[in-house]
Design goal:
The two termini are 42 Å apart. The protein is built from 25 helices and 20 strands. The radius of gyration is 27 Å and the shape is globular. A hairpin with a 2-residue loop joins strand 10 and strand 11. The strands form 4 sheets. A 7-stranded parallel beta sheet has the order 3-4-2-5-12-1-13, sandwiched between helices. A 7-stranded parallel beta sheet has the order 16-17-15-18-19-14-20, sandwiched between helices. The relative contact order is 0.11. It has 651 residues and is of the alpha/beta class. The protein folds into 4 domains: 187 residues, Rossmann fold (3-Layer(aba) Sandwich), CATH 3.40.50.300; 79 residues, no CATH class; 145 residues, Fumarase C, Chain B, domain 1, CATH 1.10.275; 201 residues, Rossmann fold (3-Layer(aba) Sandwich), CATH 3.40.50.300.
Length: 651
């Protein structure tokens, strides 16, 4: 590894901006060692380590199949389109590397050919976009919609032409040999390294024991980048979910099928329309639940569908009656589809989808499995019923760590209080090697951590007004050039409204434009300030003077009323643990480290980390937070921050 990463190594010869980083060598050696001998590894690699190459090169050197799983599709693309070509040029040979995304990212040639008769467009703009897709389909080698860089992310018709598994005809499809999914899997089968994202990885892991089978080729080694996100993503795929969108899409797909028998075609349309009406009545109960206005997550108790009467017997509620009616309608629709003689291949897939929907609904509505938390979420016009495993550690211990020769977990934020105990306990990882690589950056010289002394408790009404006043003072000192990161969308908007009215700096608000568009505006606008929440706490890289300050309003504790969080708390209490110190605090520390990690992204960066929450100083757990943060000098007065910034705004 030293011959590659060392001062005179391969990277130094081919990378114009190469910096020798001892921590990168340490990490690369640890990754190679555990992949070669077997076993598992947790490695926290501080910002600036160069961890991507520190795990990619050892995986390539192994000459065995390794899955690399990233948190996002954009990081996947960076690995495949930037890092792999760089290594191929440096090594002077082609590498056996492939990348796979979820099927919804790929174009389906069969559905595209059928689309002329099936699609309706909202306007001429969509017609233009569709013609662009048609032309692209004739030249693309991958069918990956990420290639359509000049088209909007939310193409209205993409859902009608993508390659989702539930509508796939498989080997019966006339386009099977030319299918982009088929070709992607062939490339993966022929590769040593397969780059995926966490969602696809856990969809594959959960599917390996069911009728649909695996998505990925067989493997025994996996490297997780941004591994701190694994628990919540894995929980989605080992749980159960049904949404109103899923039911609507099923009905629409049934209505599109051409049925030669006119009588059965009419009966199918009649019953699919009736099931659609039954579904609307069923879902409307969730939108009216508790007379609550707005989006959010809510507990889904069995009492929502049935309750005990005075005699102690269960009675079906109106919501339960709507479910029974919907289930009977789905069953009748299924029987109608089964009557079709010599059915087209689409019918078999539709019946399978219908059966899966009924099974999932039955589990969500009638099951009382204590190992799951039952809840639903409203997002705009969408309603999602969910059952989530409360304790994922046993599942992952059995399905992942016990089955793999080697698993590497890496991130800039895996530890709490300098230990991996939290992440290991949450993921069911009993035995592993542990490596902590300090950041390549000198936080003692490049940054200060500002903790204002006069802030009120964030749970009081006075906090927002005080936070606005403090943010204005900080921005005037840093000449803007800041991220203001909030723990809730409501507080983000309140801070934006209050601050933007008092400063002359350009202020941008998350939600008013795409994420990529906001970042580009921030980078190119002098003195810009971006107000953001969850999605901007991680995975954002802004180097240079454009970002010289990161302000965090409150400690990012998980929301205690969230059904999944509350269930995890109860589980820990029942096991005799302290959920606040063993779950809430470590989770918040990891999130906070991610947010603060946006500031220093190169050895030339300078700036201030500001945390407005006084609990860092006043509560007993504050020291645990501070011991986990980058080792920047702590200051309590704005005057002590000013040394990092010139008297006049940077030109």
């Amino acid at each position: 590894m030293d011959s590659i990463f060392g001062p005179q190594g391969l990277l130094a010869k081919h990378h114009k901006q190469f910096e020798y980083r001892p921590g990168q060598v340490e990490m690369a050696e640890a990754v190679y060692d555990v992949l070669q001998k077997g076993g598992h590894l947790c490695v926290e690699a501080g910002t600036g380590t160069g961890k991507t190459l520190a795990y990619l090169i050892p995986a390539l050197a192994l000459k065995k199949r390794v899955i690399i799983s990233t948190a996002t599709k954009s990081l996947q693309e960076q690995l495949f389109q930037k890092d792999v070509p760089f290594l191929e040029k440096a090594l002077g040979r082609q590498l056996r590397v492939a990348y796979l995304k979820g099927r919804g990212n790929y174009l389906c040639l069969h559905r595209l050919n059928q689309s002329d008769a099936a699609l309706t467009f909202a306007g001429m703009e969509d017609v233009t976009y569709f013609n662009t897709v048609r032309k692209w389909a004739k030249v693309t080698q991958t069918g990956d919609r990420a290639e359509l860089v000049d088209l909007p992310e939310d193409l209205a018709f993409w859902h009608d032409i993508d390659a989702r598994s539930e509508i796939c005809l498989g080997s019966k499809c006339s386009k099977y040999d030319d299918c982009f999914i088929t070709l992607a899997r062939q490339r993966a089968e022929d590769s040593d390294i397969i780059i995926v994202n966490h969602h696809l990885f856990f969809a594959d892991l959960a599917a390996r024991n069911n009728d649909y089978g695996a998505i990925l080729p067989d493997y025994t080694m996996v490297i997780f980048d941004e591994a701190h996100e694994i628990e919540d993503i894995a929980a989605e795929y080992f749980g159960t979910q049904v949404s109103n969108y899923r039911l609507t899409e099923l009905i629409q797909d049934i209505q599109k099928v051409v049925i030669p028998d006119a009588e059965l075609a009419t009966e199918t349309l009649r019953w699919s329309a009736r099931v659609g009406e039954q579904g609307e009545r069923f879902w409307s109960g969730f939108f009216r639940y508790g007379n609550t206005i707005g989006d959010g997550r809510f507990n889904l108790e069995t009492t929502h569908f049935a309750k005990r009467n005075a005699d102690g017997k269960f009675e079906i509620t109106p919501a339960g009656e709507q479910y029974v009616t919907l289930d009977n309608g789905l069953n009748t629709l299924r029987e109608v589809l089964k009557k079709i003689s010599e059915p087209p291949p689409e019918i078999e897939r539709l019946v399978r989808r219908l059966d899966a929907l009924r099974l999932d609904l039955d589990f969500l509505v009638t099951s009382n499995d204590g190992s799951f938390v039952y809840w639903f979420e409203r997002r705009g016009r969408g309603c999602f019923l969910q059952a989530t495993p409360i304790n994922l550690s046993e599942i992952l211990a059995d399905r992942l760590f016990a089955e793999m020769e080697s698993v590497v977990l890496t991130s800039a934020t895996l530890t709490s209080g300098g230990k991996f105990d939290f992440i290991k306990a949450r993921l069911g990882l009993a035995e592993c090697e542990e490596v902590i690589v300090d950041s390549h950056f000198d936080y003692r010289k490049q940054a200060v951590l500002y903790l204002p002394r006069t802030m009120p408790d964030p749970r009081t009404p006075q906090f927002t007004k005080a936070a606005i006043e403090e943010i204005v003072k900080i921005l005037n000192l840093t000449h803007g050039r800041a991220f203001v990161l909030s723990t809730s969308a409501q507080h983000m908007r309140e801070l934006f409204d209050g601050v933007s009215a008092q400063v002359d700096f350009p202020c941008f608000l998350q939600g008013r434009g795409s994420k990529a568009g906001l970042l580009e505006k921030f980078r190119t606008t002098k003195g810009a300030v971006l107000f953001a929440t969850a999605s901007f706490w991680q995975g954002i890289d802004v180097q240079g003077e454009a970002l010289s300050c990161v302000i965090v309003d409150k400690l990012p504790f998980p929301v205690p009323t969230d059904p999944v969080v509350a269930a995890r708390h109860r589980f820990l209490e029942e096991q005799g643990h302290n959920p606040f110190m063993e779950y809430t605090v470590p989770q918040a520390i990891i999130t906070l480290k991610q947010g603060l990690g946006r500031l220093i992204r190169s050895s030339q960066d300078r700036g201030v980390l500001a945390i407005l929450d006084p609990r860092l100083r006043t509560k007993f757990y504050g020291k645990v937070f501070l011991d986990s943060l980058p080792p920047a000098p702590i200051v309590y007065r704005l005057e002590d921050v000013s040394r990092l910034f010139p008297a006049q705004p940077a030109k």
